[in-house]
Amino acid sequence: RNELAALEELGYLTHPHTSSGRIPTDLGYRRYVDAVGGSSKLREVQKKAIAGFFADTMLDLDFVLKGTTQLLSRLTQYAGLAVPPSDAEEALLQVEVLDVQSALMLLVVGQHGTIDKVMMDRPRDFDAATLAALHRRLEGAFRGLSRDDAHALARRMVGEATGAERDVLLVIADRLTQPAAAPRGPQVLVGGFANLADEAAHWRRDTLRHLFDAIERENEMLRLLRDVTADEVSVTIGGEHPRTGEWDASIVAAPFRAGSTSLGTIGVVGPRAMDYGTVVASVREVARRLSELAT
Fold first, then answer.
1. How many CB atoms lie within 10 A of CB 162?
2. CA–CA distance from 233 to each of 8, 195, 198, 244, 288 (Å)?
3. How do beta strands 261-271 and 249-258 pair?
4. In angstroms, rounded to a whole number, what is the distance separating the alpha carbons of residues 50 and 41?
5. Which helix (H) or strand (E) covers residue 266, if one does?
6. CA 84 to CA 66: how far, in whole Å?
7. Element housing 116 (H / E)
8. pTM for this predicted structure
9. pLDDT tens digits for range 4-49
10. What is the mean pLDDT of the chain?
11. Cα separation of 60 and 182, whole Å?
């Protein structure tokens, strides 16, 4: 009892009602997460679930991320979250020019499946030899670049080219200044939404309603997840952030990358009294697997 009183005096425990027991504060949970959260290990059954998911998964990132939210939900029994990369952030896979009879087709292919097609007039004197030379110049040159960086590279190529090849490179450079057709805005994918209702005992009714509203509206949750700047796993507990404080919730999130380029964020939202060890280990491992898949 003396130890509990001392922990309460230090701010790690609180005694909300005279007749109730002591419960951890946000500071108490933070102390626990900082002490043991990073060293927690997944159980064998959880490792097998993650390995099985990524062994069977497809390369379409949107499909994978939808499955990832369900995977995180099954692993943790809370709600899984994912923020896919917006089209504006998608790195390029290739830029290619195809011969289509009397015209040319420009293809700008993103790393996650977006395809931007543009038809252009065939310049005079643009023969098979010129097309072959242009193909060699473009092959692999834009892989992994953002559209801004790809545009800068295309402008440099324009300065080095002449004749019909230069005319086509001008069209490519111009196209790379424009967003892909029908760009997709940022969004939050959610899996295991019903698990939050199963945890209703950990929340007051009004805070649970605020959390459900935030997930449905997406904007607040999106801003919070996109603020993740940690290299690995970020843990936000209750009142450490105005939004999670309002929801009486915690969010564990991590970015996934292609090389050094951040693509998006995955995470888990649940009550402050969540199993932080399992959640941190699950989010870290799934983010690592996604980064391997995207690279």
1. 7
2. 28, 22, 25, 17, 11
3. antiparallel
4. 13
5. strand 261-271
6. 9
7. strand 115-121
8. 0.71
9. 888 888 888 887 766 667 888 999 999 989 888 667 889 999 999 9
10. 84
11. 18
For residue 99 the two structure tokens come to 């011969």
- Token readout for 97 is 């020019």
**Amino acid (one-letter) located at 104:** L
Alpha-carbon span 162 to 139, nearest angstrom: 18
Q: How far apart are CA 256 and CA 85, in angstroms?
A: 10
Q: If you count them, how many residues does the chain have?
A: 295
Between residues 111 and 87, which one has the greater pLDDT?
A: 111
H or E stretch covering 5? helix 2-10
In one letter, which amino acid is 262? S
How far apart, in whole angstroms, are the C-alpha atoms of residue 64 and residue 79? 16
Residue 258 has pLDDT above 60, yes or no: yes
| CB-based contacts of 170-174 (< 8 A; 24+ apart in sequence) | 171/106, 171/118, 171/120, 172/95, 172/97, 172/106
Report yes or no: 268 and 81 within 8 Å, Cβ to Cβ.
yes
- Cβ partners under 8 Å of residue 12, min gap 6: 24, 25, 27, 28, 31
Residue entry with tokens 């010129």:
130
What lies within 8 Å, CB to CB, of 54 at 6+ separation is 289, 293
Q: Token pair of 45, please? A: 């059954």
DSSP codes, 83-107: EPPPGGGPPEEEEEEEEETTEEEEE
Instruction: Determine the pLDDT at residue 101.
Output: 77
Q: Would you give the distance in Å from CA 76 to the centre of its chain?
A: 19
Residue 75 CA from chain centroid, whole number: 18
